[in-house]
Each structure stands twice: as structure tokens, then as C-alpha cells.
Amino acid sequence: MRITTTVNGEPREIDxxxxxESLLYALRxxxxxxxxxxxxxxxxxxxxxVYLDAVPVCAxxxxxxxxxxxxIITVEGLAERDTLHPVQQAxxxxxxxxxxxxxxxxxxxxxxxxxxxxxxxxxxxxxxLAGNLCRCTGYEKILxxxxxxxxxxxxxxxxxx
Amino acid sequence: xxxxxxxPTGAPTETASTAEGRIGDSPLRPDGVLKVTGEFAYSSxxxxxxxxxxxxxxSPHPHARIVSVDIGxxxxxxxxxxxxxxxxxxxxxxxxxxxxxxxxxxxxxxRYQGEPVALVAADHPxxxxxxxxxxxxxxxxxxxxxxxxxxLDPSAxxxxxxxxxxxxxxxxxxxxxxxxxxxxxxxxxxGMQDQAFLGPESGLAVPAEDGGxxxxxxxxxxxxxxxxxxxxxxxxxxxxxxxxxxxxxAFGGREDLSMHVHACLLALHTGKxxxxxxxxxxxxxxxxxxxxxxxxxxxxxxxxxxxVYGKVEIIFDGGAYASSTGAVVANGATMGLGPYRxxxxxxxxxxxxxxxxxxxxxxxxxxxxxxxxxxALMDELADRLGLxxxxxxxxxxxxEGDENITGQRIDSAAPVAELLQIVRDMELPPSASEQRDxxxxxxxxxxxxxxxxxxxxxxxxxxxxxxxFSEGFDDFSTARVRLEITGGEPxxxxxxAAAEVGxxxxxxxxxxxxxxxxxxxxxxxxxxxxxxxGGSTSAxxxxxxxxxxxxxACEAVRQRVLxxxxxxxxxxxxxxxxxxxxxxxxxxxxxxxxxxxxxxxxVEETVEWRHRPTQRVDPETGQGDAHVQYAFSAHRAxxxxxxxxxxxxxxxxxxxxxxxxxxxPDAVMxxxxxxxxxxxxxxxxxxxxxxxxxxxxxxxxxxxIPTILDMPPMKIEILEYADPHAPYGLRGVGEPPTIxxxxxxxxxxxxxxxxxxxxxxxxxxxxxxx
Lengths: 161, 770
Ligand code: FES
Ligand code: FES
Fold this sequence. Notes:
The structure holds two protein chains of two kinds.
Chain A: E1 3-7, E2 10-14, H1 23-30, E3 49-52, E4 55-58, E5 71-73, H2 86-94, H3 103-116, H4 122-128, H5 140-158
Parallel strand pairs in A: 1-5
Antiparallel strand pairs in A: 1-2, 3-4, 3-5
Helix pairs in contact in A: 2-5
Chain B: E1 15-16, H1 32-37, E2 52-58, E3 64-70, H2 72-75, E4 80-84, E5 109-110, E6 116-122, H3 125-133, E7 136-141, H4 148-151, E8 165-173, E9 182-190, E10 202-207, E11 213-217, H5 222-233, E12 240-244, H6 260-270, E13 274-277, H7 280-286, E14 293-301, E15 307-317, H8 325-334, E16 344-352, H9 367-385, H10 389-396, H11 416-425, E17 454-467, E18 476-486, E19 489-495, H12 505-517, E20 521-524, H13 542-569, E21 576-579, E22 582-585, E23 590-593, H14 594-598, E24 603-610, E25 629-642, E26 647-658, H15 665-684, E27 690-691, E28 694-695, E29 716-719, H16 736-753, E30 759-760, H17 764-768
Bound molecules: FE2/S2 (inorganic) cluster (2 copies).
One FE2/S2 (inorganic) cluster is lined by residues 38-41, 43-48, 58, 60 of chain A.
């Protein structure tokens, strides 16, 4: 089957997609966008989190066909040219990245949280990221990163930028 | 050097430095930006235009004879390019880390559920998976041995012709029949833990024009993989080139081969690049796990708590193949009584074959299981004597200059008492009754209690862990460092084969080059087998051993540069030093520019570096200097337990650790935080459930690892008592936190619940059982 979607702002068309193929497979293996990760392929780890029409989903649980005509944003689409999004910048600075396999999913999940909630409490951050497994960090520096990004985004919005 | 025919997308590239920072600083990791933008390529992201996909048929039985294999239907499937069995292996069908006892593809017999039997390559991964199901294997099921203790019974079914014993490690020290006024004992059981790294086993094998193969793979030790791949393919090392693809965590689970030989076989057979990626279920079958252990402990002590003797029996269930069981057994034995002074010791530590999933390396390597038992027994002894649980550990804790149970003198800091004191003195979290948020109580958002039935508990544990490879192993690393002027600036390039698995080794390699050469720009060459072995990324050894090699190679480069400058200027080289772009005299004057000294030349040195040798121990007494260095840590866990429902919330997990010298303090913290989480996971939730040799929970739905909701805040204090024998005085960091955190959590739950809890992971039903 043929699928037409918008990915990171660009119209995309892919052919010969199989019935059972996931959106994750289509992104990674057919569209050259391997940034979304495949740690479990069963909806349990969050490493494949992408926006589907502005709602974060596990791309491994979405059939590629369901993306027909919809708008997808992946981790590759969050930075503005050479400028990292504040969430990405904070993950780098806070040392929230070790192996980094969880990182793309966490970045999208944290990006979504901070789009909804300006100064989330630790409890709110923990709940928002509860579906994203990380095996390396013990999550402390991930919390640090989200707090740092939240502060910077709040400052930026206070100063009207 | 033969260059590969084609290079895949996602092949490793040079990593340039993006930050300043010498040792003791915490520069940002150079791959951080790539990782947050999704551009960093992992082994599962490798891609080539004409690549095809491999898949593996695995045994459904823990023990069976293979009567026949029919590949006809699979091979006839449209889109299938090859179906291979043991008959198609050109070299030796035997690999392994310590013993070559594991077939690449099973031949005649399968010894565990999940053992690879056949391979398929096809155009699409789904076609390959479906074709795998069409392979017809006729099995004759054999009786299986699935219990470690039973495996030692002479009447048990034999897993291998040579019997079921992998190794028996004995320690006999002091009085063979000691007695003491106070005797405590316990039996303990530790379940099978999984490394659960997030990046699945994967890689890409590319057939080369010279008849060899280029393998891009996520691993912990390229050269030990290369040796085994060569052996199975019957090819010389020049024709089997390995490169480290991006690694999504390891924790011991990538020390053994997974898809390495399989992808190479398919690539050589089809003449096409072959990619293999396990899914999570296959990953649970595709790598070794932490050994389950059956432990029997007895301590004798004086009335004041001073330890007199320890008697220990440990059985590690190694599963169907040896992997690194022998070394795990040595660790379990030699560190089996914890960081305590004990004059009279008897240890019998066994590693056995069973028809369970193979077990091997995982962070903490043999010490983790033992620590649960010796720390539970120390609490028992304290309670029996009415002593404080921290005080009794401090009274018996090792100090510098003490002899451990193998007769090795601890010849650098052993701050057991101090580490315990630090964690004891840390501020405690608010009590359960002051709990500000119901979601912080056991059960969390499930809202299962409003505080009724919730009891607070505090537990302590301390450990020591060997760093590096032991028992006389030739444990070296190789580093190649080049210094040259590029674009008017000095640039160092460092090339090692030591695997970066997420821990931050590449950052440390750059820091060392900056420290030793005074340069700013340091390029890390891709990790591959075009340079000598870096040894394994395990045993907390890379910063020590590869760090030592990089330091030594920098020193050699620096010496050559200074010799050259000295000859030109006409002074003695030892009166000069190198500081980035400048050659500086004793007076502090700049006497030459590096650019002038080097001209267009590059100065390059390759150094093989070894830590001081260790010894094989006496086989009858276990005595000897088995290990090169010890690293110490202590944990305090605070838990709230809902004693009615058996639910546990870890409220705090605080720790102190001596790291000798923190080469990168932020990365050290990251190791301690992540390591502590894994230890806590084993205490509370992580177990591969195996019944009659079969895994019941091969998924992240049923094998639980800590989430961000499970992890408490962690207070961490780092001590830096330099080890005079180690580069920069550093100590390995990665493993101790995984060892002492779990036993501290278990102790806290015991205190809160009043239950003995002699098994981990501790499940709700253990807490509520009457
Ligand atoms: S890969 Fe989609 S949730 Fe794990
Ligand atoms: S950084 Fe490795 S899984 Fe999160």
C-alpha cells in the first residue's frame, strides 16, 4: 500500500508498505529516520515516542497505515536547524544521556510535558515520564534536565521571547 | 589494511571534542548532541541499500536431541535468500568466552530453550521471521536438569559429556574447625536478573572483496568477538574486521556473542550485507543473564560482634554453557564474605551447568548475589547480640593493610567504617506520617493506602568489588595517539578498541589527552579492530586500563615531541614541557612552537599498557593475590512498606563510594545513580521467571525494571583516596553501587516488615505471608 503523510513538516510518500508494518518501522526503515528507537517493539518502553497529530504515541503500536494523511513529528524534527530545543540542550548539559537509547523518546515526552505545563513539580514530571524506561541513569539526571528545561522555558516565556 | 567494499549508513565516525576539560573536570560528552537529536547511529540503525535481513530459529525445548531439520519450505518462500544450519559453518562450530563449549548453531542436541538452531536471510524482516517458522525440526525431548543444586548430584542428567561442574572454587584459611561463642546462619536465594539494556542485539555484516567480512556490531569487547568469529568462520583476523556500532547499554550482557557469527555466515553465504535486530522477546533469549544463586552462610563471632569465622557454600546456576561462569565463581568466592576481617574461612563456591538459560556477566559479577547473603547475616548477628547494625559492620570493616580472605593485603584505602558513617549521618527523609503527597506512598497512583499499614524501615549495606580482570589474566589495553597540526592548531587523535557503551569512556579518553598533551582538540577515532585490543568494557576496568593506555601513549608522544624540540634547540629534553601549541622551558619561557617542531609531520605512538599482575590462587586453599584493585561503597536505603498489601516504596537510596580520583565527576555520579537503580531493581522486582527450563516472562510487560516513579532521590558522597598503583589514583566506579544498593533495600524492608525475607526479588506475597 502507499502512504502519504507529513513528517517533520515535509510531505512524504512511501510505497509497498506491508499491512502489519508499524509506523516505527516505516519511519526507521523506509523514511531514513532512525532517531525514534526500537527498544521493545511492544509498547512498554517509550523509546519510540513520536507526535501523531500533536499527540505523543508509541510509534511501535501504531500501524503505518494509520499515519495516512496525518502529521508526524519525530525527535529529528525538534531542533531548529542548528539550535537545539531547550529540552534537548538541557539533556546534554544535565548529563541525562548515557547510552542514549531512551533519549529520543524521553525528549519527545518531556517536550510534550513542557508544552502543557510550565513549571511542573517533580511528581508531575515523574508521572509524565513514567512510560519511558531508562536503564543507565537511574533517572536523577533526567529529572535535573527536565527541571532545567522548564526553568529556561519559563524564563523565556516570562521575557516574552 | 584492507578497506571494506562499502560502508553502511550509520557506521561509526570520528567523534570530535566539543568541550574543554581535563581530568577532574566534567566536560559534556561529545556524542550528547547527536543522541538528543536522534542522529546518533546505533547498531540497529545501520543501513545499506542492498541489505537483507537475518532471523534465527531457536529451540523450544530446554534439552532435546535434534533428529532432523527440514529447511525445504523455508527456502522455497519467496523473498528468502538463504537458510543455514550447523552443516553450513565453515570453521569450528564452537565458541565461548572461557571455554569453547557453545555451538554457533545447535548440532544434534539443544541444551536450553532459545538456543539457535537455524538462520534465515530474506528481503524483509517479516519474511525472514515467517520463513523461520516454516523450518521443521524433529526434536526428541530429553530429561532436563533445571536446578543448580540438583545438577551436582551424580545421578542428574548431564548437560555436557564432561559433566555438570563448571568450576569449584575453594577457600581454606586459618583453623579448619573454628568455633565461636555466637553462631548465626542463613540460607539465601537470588533470582535470575537480566541486564535489560535498551538497545537490542543487532548489527550488520558486509561481505568484503577479499572473501572476508566487515561486521558492525554493538559489543563490549571487539577483539574477543573477533577471535570467536574467526574461529567459527575459519578466517584469519585480517579478513574479519569488527567496528563498534552505537551501543545502547551493555551491563555485561554483550560480553558473549549474540548475532555476530550468524550475520557473518548469512552475509558470506548470500554475498549481501545482512542486518539482524532482535526484538525484545528474542533479546531475553539472546544474551546471558545474572546467575541465580543458592547460598548457605554461617558466621561465628565473639560476644562483642568481632567476626571469628565464616563458612559459605554458594551454587551459581550457569545454565547450559559456561560463558564467564568460572570468573563469576571466583568473584563470588573471593569477595563472598564482604569487606570484613575474618581470620578463619571456609568457602565452597560452585558454578554448574543446567538446562536453564545461560548465565554470565552482569554488573557486579558474582559479588551481587553474595552481598545479599553476607549483609543479611551481618544484620542477623547484630540483632542477636543487641548491637547496632552499622556499628557491627564498622567494627569488622576492612582497613588499609588488612588481609582479605585470600590472604591478599589491601594496599590502598579501605574506608569501610567511614563510608558507613557518611551514609548514616546523611539527613533522613521526612517520616511517612509527614508524607506530603499520597502518590509517594507504597502503591503510588494506585491509591491503595492513605498511610494506614505503612511502616518505615532503614537498611544498610557495604561492599567491595575487584576492578579489572583477575587470577593472572593478561589484562591489557592498547592505545594509539597521534599529535599533529591541523588548520594551524594542535590536534590529538586517540584510537582504542575499548567499547563505549554509554558510560562515557570517549569523554575520559579526550580528557586524558588534553591533560597529558595540553591540547584542546581531541578526536576519538572509531572503535575497531584496526588497533590492538582494549580489553573488555566490564569489571569497572576501562577508565583504569584503557585510561592507563591512553595516558601512556600520550606520554610516549610527548617524549618524542620534546626530544625533537630539544635536539633543535640544543637543550636537554627533560627541561622542556609541552603545553598545547607551545614548548615551554623550565624558566616558563616559550622556546618553540609545536607547529615549528612538527612541521607537517604527525607524531604517533601505540602503547600496550598493563596493570600490575595478579596471581592464580592456590587451588586447594584459594590463597593468593587474585585481584588488582578493590573499590568500596556503602548504601543506606529508606523504605515505606504497606505491610498489609506487601507494597514497597523506596523513599531514599543514599550512598558513599571511594572512587580514588573522579576523572569526570558528573559521569561518576551517573554511574552511581544508574548502578544503584539496577541493584534496587533486583531487590524489588527484577526476575526472569524460569519454570522447568522455560522463561515465563520475556517482555518488558512482565519483566519489570525500575521506572522514574520507582526511583527515589539519591544523596551521593564521593571520597577520593588515591590508589598509588593506579593511573591518577583512580578506582573503578561502575559496579560497587549495583552491589550494595540491593542488600540495603532488602534490609530496610526486613526492618519494616519484621519478616526474614531470604530471597530476592522480594515480592508482595513474601511480605504479607504469615
Ligand atoms: S519500542 Fe515502542 S514502546 Fe518500546
Ligand atoms: S541512557 Fe541508556 S537507557 Fe537511558
